[in-house]
Every structure is written in structure tokens, then in C-alpha cells.
Write a structure and sequence with these properties.
single chain; about 110 residues; mainly beta; 7-stranded mixed sheet; 4-stranded antiparallel sheet; 11 strands; about 0% helix; about 50% strand; globular
Length: about 110
Amino acid sequence: QVQLVESGGGLVQPGGSLRLSCAASRSIISINAMGWYRQAPGKQREWVAIITRRGNTGYADSVKGRFTISRDSSKNTVYLQMTSLKPEDTAVYYCNADKDWGQGTQVTVSS
């Protein structure tokens, strides 16, 4: 089991950028995969991006080319760099590691 704490959310204008962080309570080296999910008001939680233990990455079509997932194992942290943000990216973003979830961080894209 691992505790996850997200940070970095906020209010940003369309076209802007944000970087989310997910800090884990222990080493992430042995975790098979870590990912980001999001949930907009009135919608189901959806997968956004994933990074495997080997460093392979995957993205939902809606964010491909705009979002980048990365990790720093020395800091036990996974990041989500978000660029060219759109209003439809507004959601609570959650970090996931196997069966563990963080509490989420709000991202609002609005002018």
C-alpha cells in the first residue's frame, strides 16, 4: 500500500499550462504502473495517462500531444505536464498506483 498526495492544480486560462505532482509515501521503483485519471462534474472518472515501471507511457486520445507523464524515482514523484489546456480539461485529477488513489487536485480551465 502507498499513500499518494497530488498537488499543482488551480485555475488557468485556455491555452495555458499546469504541472501536477503526485508524491508517494514510499519508493515507486517497484510499482508496476502509475497513472493519472480525472473526473469532471457529472461524469465518470476517466483514464488520462500511465507510466510503467519500465518508463513506457500511454495517453488517452483526448490529451495525446498536449499532456506528458513523467516520474522522478529519486523523489518518489510522478508528474503530469499539461499544455494547451482546454475548458473540457476541467476536472478533479487523481493519481493512481495499482489499487491506491490520492485525494485529487482540482484543475479549472476558464477565461
